[in-house]
Amino acid sequence: MSKSLTQRQFLQLIAQTSDTPLMVDVAHAKNCHIFDTKGKKYFDLIAGIGVSSIGHRHPNVIKAIKDQINKNLHVMVFGEFVQTPQVRLAEALSKTLPNQLECTYFVNSGSEATEGALKLAKRYTNRFNIISCIDGYHGSSHGALSVSGNESLKQNFRPLLPNIQHIPFGDENALNLINMETAAVIIETVQGEAGVRTAKKKYFQKLREKCKAKGALLILDEIQCGFGRTGKLWAFEHYNIQPDILLAAKGMGGGMPIGCFISSKEIMHSLRENPVLGHITTFGGHPVSTAASLATLETLLEENLIDQVEKKALLFKCLLKHPSIIEIRNKGLLMGVEFESYEFLKKIIDRSLEVGIITDWFLFCNNSMRIAPPLTISEIEIREVCHKLLESIEWASKKN
Ligand code: PMP
User: Could you tell me which residues are beta bridge partners of residue 260?
Assistant: First the structure.
């Protein structure tokens, strides 16, 4: 297809992150749909990679943004001025969390939440060894990349942070590596970019116990799996454990950039002395983002979206039946559909895009299709989307 001027400029002027950008030329978006500049309607089956959990431009989010822009935008760096949207959001978050997760540090992205949490753990424990998981993903900045667990993204960026050990996700025996020198274990409650991998409740409980016994902090990364995506507001609720530090971002902003790390007052307060300003950010907790995030959280809870996640996920799994599908892995509406190869899946993804469905693969699992729609997706829409996906799979099978 011939490219428009803007599409050609995109390729020339905008830094490219791969040779195969999806190139959807966005005009506007609403709830589960994105419309391109030619008026073509796409179903966003990946919610902007786990972001638009309450749909694109939810009216409550838009109203919160408009109300806030009429008051003030940026006024001061994080941590100095009393900014009501930040305080209200921190209060609302703490109400959804166990008592000790009462104190929130707001940042602008998932990677920044990881960075802050790693520094906090080192500062609080006075230790510097970190344990994380093979195929875990925690972000693209140097520290976050260091704890991420796949060589493909890391190998050409060394040296990275030292003193990091990677263990297999879900392997109880490997937890013996946690010792009195471990500052923290950072782990996704559900591994996202590994292609949606879960671990057993017993594993998480052992992990929790071991960290406690050795004085290591448990950092749960719920940047992708938090905020309702798995059918609980926080994915750790499935496992009956509590982290020492919780990370959130992506879906929490309702489409605005925001992230956070949450901990106890005692742990968090170690960032304010020795050195003073132990972690700082200019834009973290931006008033528009925090106002949008509060509206997102309230909407998630008021519209009972989380309660419907499991039923919707089951419907996907019932409908998506095809001989080419090797496996469907999921925790709620974070789903990975596995095929024989990247090449085969690429055909399906390209074909789906042609027929108006946006899907994707995973960073560390390129033979699995990402399905992570807005939680607002209706049953009728699930049926329509699955019908089209099956047609694309059939189309690709015939081309194989
Ligand atoms: N942690 C997890 C689990 C993620 O899925 C991501 C993003 N895919 C990140 C961290 C990094 O977030 P960001 O891209 O906002 O920096």
Answer: 106, 248
Atom of ligand 1 nearest to the CA of 247: 1
Tell me, using a 6 A CB cutoff, whether residue 139 lines ligand 1.
Answer: yes
> Which of 223, 247, 363, 370 is the pocket-test mutation for ligand 1 (most atoms within 8 Å of CB)?
223
Q: Which atom of ligand 1 is nearest to the CA of 257?
A: 15
Decide: 45 in ligand 1 pocket, CB within 6 A: no
Predicted pLDDT at 12: 97
> pLDDT tens across 82-101, in order?
999 999 999 999 999 999 99
**CA–CA separation, 296 and 293 (whole Å):** 5
- Whether the CB of 110 sits within 6 Å of ligand 1: yes
Ligand 1 center to 250 CA (angstroms): 7
Mean pLDDT calculated for residue range 11-22: 95
- Domain of residue 390 covers 5-54+304-399
> Which ligand 1 atom sits nearest the alpha carbon of residue 111?
16
**CATH number reported for the structural domain that contains residue 262 in this entry:** 3.40.640.10
| Domain end point (choices 279, 302, 325) | 302
Ligand 1 lined by 223 (C-beta under 6 Å): yes
- pLDDT tops 90 at residue 333: yes
- Give the C-alpha separation, 260 to 234, whole Å: 14
Mean pLDDT of the 32-46 span: 98
Q: In total, how many domains does the chain have?
A: 2
The pLDDT tens digits of the residues spanning 189-219 come to: 999 999 999 999 999 999 999 999 999 999 9
Q: Are residues 50 and 165 in the same domain?
A: no
CA dist 207 and 175 (Å) reads 7
Please say which residue of 250, 278, 302 terminates a domain: 302
CA 38–ligand 1 middle distance (angstroms): 31
